[in-house]
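INFO  loader      accepted 1 record
INFO  loader      residues=460
INFO  predictor   begin
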Amino acid sequence: MIGEKLVANIILLKSRKKRIEQGHPWVYQSEVERLEGEAAPGDVVTVSSHQGKVLGSGYYNPKSQLVVRLISFGSLVEMNVAFFEERFKRCLAHRERFVPGADSCRMVYGEADFLPGLIVDKFADILVVQILTLGMDLRRKEITEALVSVFHPAGIYERSDVSVRELEGLEENTGLLYGECPETVQITENGLKIEVDIRHGQKTGYFFDQRENRASIAPLMLGWGARSGIRLEEQETEEGLRTVPVNASGKPVTFPYWDGATVLECFAHTGSFTLHACKYGAKKVTCLDVSEHAIVSARRNVELNGFTDRVEFVTADAFEYLRSQVQGLTDRRERAQAGDKKVDTSKKLATSGRTWDVVVLDPPAFAKNRRSIPGACRGYKDINLHGMKLVNEGGYLVTASCSYHISAELFLQTVHEAAIDAGKQLRLVEFRAAGKDHPRILGVDEGNYLKFAIFEVTSR
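INFO  predictor   done
INFO  writer      dumping tokens
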């Protein structure tokens, strides 16, 4: 028809790997034989095999190594408001089924929701959007209109302040897209109140991917009273004969969290694991982060939930803090082993060398690309080696990696190597990935980034 724009067609090489046919939505520059027709950056194009079979359609960016990101494996799709509305409704239906309440969660998860380059997190009635690619960036208006139509938010805020946009020829961008957005939003997760800084917090302000994993630490928080010599005993009280906790002297213990664990959370961010530890009965939690802003956020959340009396806050580098506590343990051990030998006890130990029943390590991604894998493994080994040394005998190490380039097998191997060097025996209790609001498409390994493990730690 006269005036109708012809859709360009990407023809793929015969020698390429058949990733597209196996469900992968990315087309690399190295897989392209030629472009038939004309296409401007961001245009929707069809993608065909060397035999001419149409494999799908997607948006085009000749400046990126990922030259096409597929939005459909079927017929040609136009990325208009109606397209986004239909996809967002599918996203909502999934969360309503698998995320209780779906009030606050990751609502749109890029490729896994068939919307490559787009992330949307829902914080109560506020949406935070992250646009990663040119194809989505050019459709910011359509995306915003469809989000308003489907979710009816009070406000939409953009947090596209990520360096990956440079690979698409884009600058970082933040700002209000719709309505009104406060600086912080209060959400509820697993019955806990959490204040999220949507404007200055990491990524979109909060990490929903660990929701189920945070809840999984509940069994670790109780059952520690006996180590302190506390036992249950029937005693006559004003209310009659009751079972009460008593200490070694037979005196009743009044502290309500007498059976709780001592917990260290490193890389705390908003203090989410600290909050869950307290909710499930922890006796005392040390909440640590190198960022003063993060500690301020964590402190507010602790106060919001009434846990202030059980949490201490430490602003420090996790690597240095773990090493210093291990050094303190070593110094104490050397003094104890010195026996009758002269030891200068007037010299104070550099650190007390504390230990905990449960140590939680939830660091940021150490491996940003394949070249950084060796260095990342050294980092993971370092924190896990020192972390497990600080776990009381028979206690638990809770450790995670969100580096996509570190596979589950490599992560477990690295932790095992740390255990060997530390002289520890690890028993894997649970191994998990991201939550149900972060679904994964089989064949798209890039979505399998989060590794979460709980280990029982004993000495060899």
